[in-house]
Amino acid sequence: MATFLYKLGRLAFRRRHFVALIWVALLTLAGIGAASAPAAGNTSFSIPGTEAQKAFDLLDQRFPGTSSDGATARVVFKAPAGEKMTDKLNKATVKKTVRELSNGSEVDSVADPYKGKAVSKDGRIAYASVRYKVSGMELEDSSRDALKAAVQDARDAGLTVEIGGDALSATPETGSSEVIGIAIAAVVLVITFGSLLAAGFPLLTAIIGVGIGVSTITALASALDLGSTTSTLATMIGLAVGIDYALFIVSRYRAELSEGREREEAAGRAVGTAGSAVVFAGLTVVIALVGLSVVNIPMLTKMGVAAAGTVVVAVLIALTLIPALLGFAGRRIKPTGEKSKLLGGGRAKKKHAERPNMGTRWASFVVRRPVAVLLLGVVGLGAAAIPATSLQLGLGDDGSQPTSTTQRRAYDLLSDGFGPGFNGPLMVVVDAKDSAHPKSAFKKVDNEIKGLKDVVTVTPAAPNKAGDTATITVIPKSKPSSTTTEDLVHAIRDQGTEITADTDAKVLVTGSTAMNIDVSQKLNDALIPYLVLVVGLAFLLLIVVFRSILVPLKAALGFLLSVMAALGAVVAVFQWGWLSRLLGVEETGPVMSMMPIFMVGVVFGLAMDYEVFLVTRMREAYVHGEKPSQAVVTGFKHGARVVTAAAIIMMAVFSGFIGSSESMIKMIGFGLAIAVFFDAFIVRMAIVPAVLALLGKRAWWLPKWLDRLLPNVDVEGEGLRALSDKNADDEDRELVRA
Question: What is the pLDDT of residues 239-291, one digit of tens each?
Fold first, then answer.
């Protein structure tokens, strides 16, 4: 591995014009594809195998042409102060709006508020339900524009009008905080390298990698049903790992220069050693992201695969484009310890310049006090993880949107006028095809549901033309994301089992609320299998990298500590409301259902980055003859500064997405940022050296039979040392002959 990458690095350095041209061409092609591709919509939560999805499929069969999964919009009207929606003038305005809404080619039906009893008891609020023939993802912009225009006319007439539903989805906005995150990353790079040019390379290559990845996603978005969230997450992860991987290559290059090597040789060795760590770190991230497919949720699978593709691009760029750019830079890239003239370089070094760096001093302290550091780290993370014991999971609805959006304002108006449960109606589908008395079955289901707690309204059964299937709408008392509404869904399904036994009619509960509940359950059920699969595969990979049993085991256990602590922080902020105003969290509630499994996947991959980069330096020192405790100090001497910079950069990038208007993106950005902090600065910087100091030589133990079976990937670059000795011998022979 190291020898191959060494040759690749030297080749890229020599053929830098050709390498740069290839990457510019790829970026251009991806950009053209993205510019010419149709715009993507919002990915639906269609989940194969769930009861809610089975009900949707049944409705499509028994109610042909009704578009059960079609987009919906609720246009909510509020009368001015002192007036009612039943007043003559207001009523005329609403009826005019209903007529305008009915004109669209994609509109299936529009329910008149005055015919459908959609006026609140106090007369202040009314709503018109619009159903479309196509899903929200397929809805054309012209239909959305017509919806907005009709609403604006009603507003001009003096009414307060807002739009809820999935027909008018809010586009996530990240705001200026994302730019601030990248700016922080730039400052950290300048401080780390002491050179504007060296600092610019990781940023430039990361932007190129993300540009290629996100442009490719955009180009394929319509064909593969990729939502806007997919590209946002790919950007988040691609920027973070792209900067980090390039940072490690450039840092190792400067270290090789400081040892007196020629620039091409230094580039080859940097790619051969740090590049090996980049490859395996990237593999762990890819495993974690692609492994999301085992959950069998299409949206999550697409997000994981798309982000994994961006990570692969970041790895390839670090291995090829970085050495090419180093070749272009020439002598303007200084060895480690030297700054550019612009930043104060070129001055005479002071006598105390050889003082041990911060990483060396910290590692020496940990090696002397391993037990105290280990206990402090474990107890601290354990305390941070305590809120995770009260974790409540759910999927966001319009109630979790910012109050600045029309969806959220429509949600609040409906809650005021009709009760919070009105925003999450349940659709009960009664399949009486096998029942001897379908009408009796419909009536029995209606009566049974009316007798359940937390039910406000039950509409009469609406059968299809064949009379073998009917739909019943149930309005809960509680809001859609509450545990009470979830209990009601389970109660209806339990009653349905008894009804099936009595009447042979099947009862299915669907609707967006029921679908969200089913998604949450599916994610919960998949978490443990996913964790076992991803951690297991990465554990085997790390055994190959470190040729040790205990080091990968320690890495996995440390990851579990950091991810539990991060989940605890997410619960404290987004569920309990701690620091919620500071982070712009307007509505607290259940944590997004996919958050735990997504954090497990992404954080595990990123955590292994630091494990590989830091511990390979220790392993390299140990293999080259140092004592275990001294190897820990040596690893920190060369790697701590760079790992610290990488962690701060990654935190800055992730924190930039906390400013997003999309609650899911905000939560993921915060969760990943705090997880990187816990893992990099507590687990990898404190717990890892403490454990290695306590284990000593046992940390690097590997059974002989397993050692013979494992392939030798040579992450430490031992093959490069042998290659260097061979080259030196060849040069000596040439001199003798001369």
Answer: 888 888 998 899 889 888 888 889 999 999 889 888 888 888 888 888 888 88
pLDDT of residue 351: 44
* pLDDT tens digits, one per residue of 354-383: 577 788 899 999 999 999 999 999 999 999
Q: Is the dihedral of CA 137, 142, 143, 146 positive or negative?
A: positive
Measured CA to CA in angstroms, residue 192 lies from 200, 205, 243, 255 at distances of 12, 17, 13, 13
Contact (Cβ atoms closer than 8 angstroms) between residue 367 and residue 631: no
HSE, CB side, 13 Å, CA atoms: give it for residue 122: 13
CA gap 468, 456 in Å, rounded: 26
Helix residue ranges, H only, 173-290: 177-193, 196-224, 228-258, 263-290
Q: What is the pLDDT of residue 731?
A: 45
Q: How far apart are CA 450 and CA 462, in angstroms?
A: 16
In three-state form (DSSP H/G/I as H, E/B as E, the rest C), the secondary structure along 524-575 is HHHHHHHHHHHHHHHHHHHHHHHCCCHHHHHHHHHHHHHHHHHHHHHHHHHH
What is the rounded distance in angstroms from the CA atom of residue 22 to the CA atom of residue 483?
Answer: 54
Cα–Cα dist 297/292, whole Å: 8
pLDDT value of residue 24? 94
Q: Where are the alpha helices (DSSP H) in 337-420?
A: 358-368, 370-385, 406-418
CA torsion, points 672, 675, 677, 679, in degrees to nearest 10? -130
Radius of gyration in angstroms for the set of CA atoms belonging to the chain, rounded to a whole number: 30
Q: Could you give the CA distance from residue 488 to residue 477 in angstroms, rounded to a whole number?
A: 10
Tell me the C-alpha distance between 312 and 242, whole Å. 10
Sign of the alpha-carbon torsion through 479, 484, 486, 490: negative
Average pLDDT, the chain: 83
Tell me how far apart the alpha carbons of residues 136 and 43 are, in angstroms, rounded to a whole number: 9
Question: What residues contact residue 122 under an 8 Å CB cut-off, 6+ apart?
Answer: 84, 417
pLDDT above 60 for 174: no
What is d(CA 316, CA 133) in angstroms, rounded to the nearest whole number?
44
Residue 678 is given by DSSP the state I
What secondary structure, in 3-state letters, does 488-508 show? HHHHHHHHHHHHHHHHCCEEE
CA distances from 554 to 330, 539, 550, 595 (A): 41, 10, 6, 24
- Where are the alpha helices (H) located in 656-678, listed in sequence order? 663-677
Contact status, residue 185 vs residue 331, Cβ threshold 8 Å: no
Q: Confirm if 156 and 95 have CB atoms less than 8 A apart.
A: no
CB 12 within 8 A of CB 267: yes
Question: Residue 313 and residue 218: Cα distance in Å, rounded?
Answer: 16
Which pLDDT belongs to residue 453? 87
C-alpha to C-alpha distance for 544 and 615, rounded to whole angstroms: 13
The whole-number pLDDT of residue 46 equals 62
For the record, the structure tokens of 615 come out as: 């511990």
Closest residue by Cα to residue 33 from 275, 221, 190, 247: 221
The two tokens of residue 99 are 């007529």
Least confident segment among 136-145, 339-348, 460-469: 339-348
Average pLDDT over residues 498-505: 89
Choice between 350 and 663, residue whose per-residue pLDDT is larger: 663
On the question of pLDDT at 353 being above 60, the answer is no
Please answer whether residues 159 and 97 qualify as being in contact, where contact means their C-beta atoms are separated by less than 8 angstroms. Answer: no
Residue 340 has a pLDDT of: 54
Classify strands 506-510 and 426-431 as parallel, antiparallel or unpaired. antiparallel
Give me the pLDDT at residue 736, please: 46
Place of tokens 């982070």: 583
Return the closest-CA partner of residue 123 out of 416, 538, 531.
416
The residues pairing with 473 across neighbouring beta strands, listed in sequence order, are 427
What is the rounded CA–CA span in Å between residue 230 and residue 246? 24
Q: How confident is the model at residue 214 (pLDDT cuts 50, 70, 90)?
A: confident
